[in-house]
Amino acid sequence: MKRRILRVAKLVSLGVVLAVVTLALPDASPKSTELALVKVHQGDAASINQNVISILAVGSDARPGENFTHTRGDALQLVTINTKTHAASIIGVPRDSWVDIPGHGNDKINASLYYGGPELLGRTVGNLIGVHPRYVFVTRFQYLTQMVHWLGGIDVRNPYAFSDVSLKPKGFKAGRIHLSGYDAVAYSRIRHTLPRGDFDRSAHQEIVLKAIQAKVRANADRPGFIEHGVLDAMSHMYTNLPPTELFRLAQVMAQVDPSKVRSCVVQGGIGVSSGGASIVLPYVAQARDMGRQIRKDGTLSHCG
Amino acid sequence: MATRLVLGRVAGDLHQPNKRIFKKHRKQVLERVGRAVDTWIDGGFVGVSYPRSDFKSAFAAFTKPAKHDARQQMKLMTNWKLRKKIDGVDVKKRKVAVDVLAPHGRPAGATARVDLVFTTTGHTRQKVTVTGRLFLGPDDHGSWRVFGYDVSNGGK
């Protein structure tokens, strides 16, 4: 019983990206910091529907010992939730998108996490899409593995089969498949063997996020589920938010109706930087169009 | 019938001294959450006279955005449709279990799990069940307010 409670708790804590016994977790031992949730200044807040909350979810591939809030973000997804309708949207941004990073000139968009932490990354992604996130959530991929494992895996509908020699030699079949913790991360990270590389990987990350949220939603009515999830997240988290706000955010995330979630990936051309690195030249007009859509009510009617 | 108010699951690192801290807050948080939930139960279902045209007092303990949403949602509920066809209610069950988030023993959020059953009297007689969850947090003045909900209401 206790083990199952721990498992679902991990699930909710993950949902704070994307959103559990009369006595709670007795384990008071120090835990490593695996998550960061930062509330950032949202310069355009007044022009955004007040029922809309945007959270930039960032997957970091920081190695043990590295400060994961100041490395290069490997996955960038802007999650926007309408708290009134319980609809949501996810906009994926290819990590190699070549953009202006405020104060640092042109570089790959994920470098802004390295230069200025979650706040600068939030500004940089906000400048591209035209909507600045209210929160930036950063997590290590290792923690994602752990959480999906604890929750018993997730189910996704995989649009086509693919594999990767090092990450998943046997590959993922097309159709409805079950992903373990390891699988969820591999599914989110494989890029080289995908027809459209970074763009397809970003779409896969969105599939995983949606599956995690759906599982959170399915478990949200279990007594203490959200409370223990938030507590567990807090024990691994750096944040500038008070517990009450974390709790509200988790409940908002858990209330999202999975049938009302739509996702898009910002497209772009492929180029080479002056330093010889492969880069994505994002279609800014398309990104801004997505921004205009979510600014209105948090949802996407089309990807453009 | 008074609400049977019970403490549900508590999420908090409740080793000492946090356990002592929570013990001090336990009664207060239960009372305050219970008060907010009772405002909703009484104002929206069983503490008002019938027939009636609205349930304005039901959302006195809701935050402003939640109040706005709840007023719209209320019209989808069974009780709204019955409000002019009944002359009273007979409460059969009224239970609220409160799950609490209490990091370091200090309550920061709560989920009230509501289980309300009543029968109506008057022109339309039927059993009505209200189940679901209200999500609450403390405001700046120490009162607890409902900021969200997931409630179903059905009659038969």
Short description:
The complex is a heterodimer of chains A (304) and B (156). Chain A is an alpha+beta fold and 304 residues long.
Can you walk through the features of this model?
The complex is a heterodimer of chains A (304) and B (156). Helix content of chain A is 37%, strand content 26%. Chain A is of the alpha+beta class. The radius of gyration of chain A is 18 Å and the shape is globular. Chain A starts with a helix and ends in a 7-residue tail after the last helix. By secondary structure, chain B is an alpha+beta fold. Helices cover 29% and strands 38% of the residues of chain B. Chain B is built from three helices and five strands, in the order βαααββββ. A five-stranded mixed beta sheet of chain B has the order 1-2-3-4-5. The interface between A and B is medium-sized, with 34 and 30 residues.
Could you outline the blueprint of secondary structure elements for this entry?
The complex is a heterodimer of chains A (304) and B (156).
Chain A: H1 2-15, E1 35-39, E2 52-60, E3 73-82, E4 88-92, E5 98-101, E6 105-108, H2 111-129, E7 135-140, H3 141-150, E8 154-158, E9 162-164, E10 168-172, E11 175-179, H4 181-189, H5 197-219, H6 225-235, E12 237-239, H7 243-254, E13 261-265, E14 268-272, E15 278-282, H8 284-297
Parallel strand pairs in A: 1-12, 2-7, 4-13
Antiparallel strand pairs in A: 1-7, 2-3, 3-4, 5-6, 8-11, 9-10, 14-15
Helix pairs in contact in A: 1-3, 1-5, 1-6, 3-4, 4-5, 6-7
Chain B: E1 4-11, H1 18-46, H2 64-74, H3 78-82, E2 88-101, E3 109-121, E4 127-138, E5 144-155
Parallel strand pairs in B: 1-2
Antiparallel strand pairs in B: 2-3, 3-4, 4-5
Shape of chain A: globular
Strand residue content of chain A: 25-35%
Weakly predicted, low-confidence segments of chain A: 1-30
Q: Spans of chain B with pLDDT under 50 lasting ≥5 residues?
A: none
Most extensive interface: pair and counts? A-B, 34 and 30 residues
Give the number of DSSP strands of chain A. Answer: 15
